[in-house]
Design brief:
The protein is of the alpha+beta class and 211 residues long. It contains seven helices and eight strands. α2 packs across α4. The longest helix is centred in the first third of the chain and has 32 residues. Bound molecules: coenzyme A (COA).
C-alpha cells in the first residue's frame, strides 16, 4: 500500500519538476527572442561592453545609490566587469538607451518567479535624466512585455518608503499600492520599511483596453 502511495507521490513530484522546468525554459526562450523593446523615446536592449562609461556615471553617484541595495562601483574597469559578470549574466536585464542620443541612461531588470507566474523588477536611472518620464515609459513597455509576451499573471515591486519617486513611477504605469512591509529590508546597516506595489494581468488588460 505505502509502496503504491510513494510511487504516486514520486510520479507527481517528477511531473511537477518537469512542468516547472518547461515553464522556465519557455520564459527564457521568449526573453532570448525579444532582446529589445522599443518605446517612443527609448530602446530597452541588452548591455554591451561599450556601456561601461555610462554605467559608471550612475553606478558611482551616491545620490543614485542611496535608495538601492547595490553598493555601486568606483572605476570604469569595475563597470566593465559588472557588465560581463552581472548585466549579461541572464536574460531580462535591459539597458535603457535614449534613441536620439544613443546614450545608455539606466537599467530595468525583471526577475521571474515561474512557480508563481509572477515577476518582480528593479530599476535605476542616471540622475541627469530624472523627472523626464523615462522610467515610467520604460516600465510601461516592460509591463506590456510581461503580460502580453510572457503571459505572466502578476508583476510586483517594492520601494523604500523614503523613495516616493519610485512609487510614483509604478502608480503612473498602472500598478496599485498593496501595503507597507515594516522594517523588511536591511541595507547598509539600516532597516527600511518598504511599500509593495502590484498589478495583475486582468487589471493591466482593463487599463489598456486589451481583450
Ligand atoms: C526612481 C527613479 C527610477 C525614477 O525615474 P524617473 O525617470 O525620474 O521617473 P519619472 O520621471 O518617470 O517619474 C517620476 C515621478 O516621481 C515624482 N517625484 C520625484 N520626486 C518625488 C518625491 N520626492 N516625492 C513624490 N514624487 C516625486 C516626479 O514628479 C514624477 O511624477 P510626475 O511625472 O507626476 O511629475 C529614479 O529617480 C532613480 O533612478 N532613482 C535612484 C534609484 C532608485 O531609487 N531606484 C528604485 C529603487 S526601488
Amino acid at each position: 500500500m505505502w509502496r503504491e502511495a510513494s510511487r504516486y507521490y514520486l510520479t507527481y513530484f517528477i511531473l511537477l519538476m518537469i512542468g516547472s522546468g518547461v515553464l522556465v525554459a519557455n520564459y527564457n526562450e521568449i526573453l532570448h527572442k525579444n532582446p529589445t523593446l522599443e518605446t517612443q523615446r527609448l530602446l530597452l536592449r541588452k548591455f554591451s561592453g561599450d556601456d561601461a562609461y555610462d554605467l559608471f556615471e550612475w553606478g558611482s553617484d551616491p545620490e543614485v545609490l542611496k535608495t538601492l541595495v547595490w553598493n555601486g562601483i568606483s572605476t570604469i574597469d569595475e563597470a566593465h566587469d559588472n557588465i560581463f559578470n552581472f548585466y549579461l549574466s541572464r536574460p531580462g536585464i535591459f539597458a535603457i538607451q535614449v534613441k536620439e542620443s544613443g546614450k545608455c541612461i539606466g537599467c530595468l531588470d525583471i526577475r521571474i518567479d515561474s512557480d508563481n507566474e509572477k515577476t518582480s523588477f528593479g530599476y535605476v536611472l542616471n540622475r541627469n535624466f530624472w523627472g523626464k518620464g523615462y522610467m515610467t515609459e520604460a516600465l510601461r513597455a516592460v509591463l506590456e512585455f510581461c503580460f502580453v509576451k510572457l503571459e505572466i499573471n502578476r508583476v510586483e515591486a517594492n520601494h523604500y518608503i523614503t523613495n516616493p519617486a519610485s512609487g510614483k513611477v509604478m502608480e503612473k504605469a498602472g500598478m496599485k499600492k498593496e501595503g507597507i512591509t515594516r522594517q523588511s529590508v536591511k541595507v547598509k546597516g539600516v532597516l527600511h520599511d518598504c511599500v509593495l506595489y502590484g498589478i495583475l494581468r486582468e487589471e493591466w488588460k482593463d487599463l489598456n483596453s486589451v481583450v
